[in-house]
Design a protein that fits this description.
Helix content is 45%, strand content 15%. It is of the alpha/beta class. It has a single domain (2-240), classed as SGNH hydrolase (Rossmann fold, 3-Layer(aba) Sandwich), CATH 3.40.50.1110. The longest helix is centred in the last third of the chain and has 25 residues, at 216-240.
């Protein structure tokens, strides 16, 4: 695969430049980066940490983006959810650890959404695993002695991004799949789970106008898929307490 990528390098570079030049530059979500979904009992403190999807690119406000939609999905059972979105467009796993962790507030659950920028930057699987593990360790150290459940959202399968032409789409699709495989290995760390993103979620109708980021419908479907996996984790944690 590496040799084939080298042979295609001039074509890939030309396509990457064209995509960057022609793709609309959408802003991050407007409005507050934290909020509260009302419900019963003490609020679950949710932090979502990551790249442009956490910055809410493709949605008007964070209520329509990944963090707000996930808070709403987790509150559907009746609990209150206090949420915080800590994201930066263009961030990779290492820059999130180095630059964004200081903004994270105390949490009962953290969701990490990364991998697209690491794929675009053609980071190796070894580097991504090291950087992602370093982020989880630093996050645990920051949040205190009681391990907080950490959910690693799967790397979006970039082979399904409508904005990407072939062969660039194929190369980034393979890279994102390789990074997601090593992200899944972190599920061996106690209290960490990995939730892959099904390719079926990447319906072209769910993308924003740039055909690269999710739109509000895409964020809602992704959040609901994450919530289905997270709910049993929260129930098990509550029983253990």
């Amino acid at each position: 695969m590496f040799a084939l990528t080298l042979l295609r390098a001039p074509v890939l570079l030309a396509q990457a430049v064209r995509v960057r030049r022609t793709t609309p530059r959408l802003p991050g979500a407007a409005g507050p980066v934290d909020g509260l979904v009302l419900g019963d009992g003490p609020a679950l403190r949710l932090v979502v940490l990551g790249e442009s999807t956490v910055d809410g690119v493709g949605a008007r406000t964070h209520d329509e983006a990944l963090t707000g939609r996930l808070a709403q999905a987790l509150a559907a059972s009746g609990r209150a959810v206090a949420w915080q979105a800590v994201g930066r467009t263009g961030a990779n796993a290492r820059t999130v650890r180095d630059d964004l962790l200081r903004s994270v507030r105390p949490a009962d659950l953290v969701v990490i959404a990364l991998g697209v920028n690491d794929s675009i930057e053609l980071h190796t699987a070894r580097r991504y695993r090291r950087d992602l593990l370093g982020l989880v360790v630093a996050l645990r150290r920051l949040l205190g002695p009681v391990p907080v459940p950490v959910v690693v959202a799967g790397v979006p399968p970039m082979g399904g991004f409508p904005a990407l032409p072939r062969p660039l789409r194929d190369v980034l699709g393979a890279r994102s799949a390789a990074l997601d495989l090593v992200a899944a290995e972190l599920a061996g760390v106690p209290g960490v789970i990995h939730v892959p993103m099904p390719a079926a979620l990447l319906d072209p109708a769910t993308f924003a106008e740039d055909r690269f980021h999710p739109g509000p419908l895409g964020y809602r479907r992704w959040a609901e898929q994450l919530a289905e996996v997270i709910e049993p984790l929260l129930s098990a944690t509550n029983k253990a307490e």
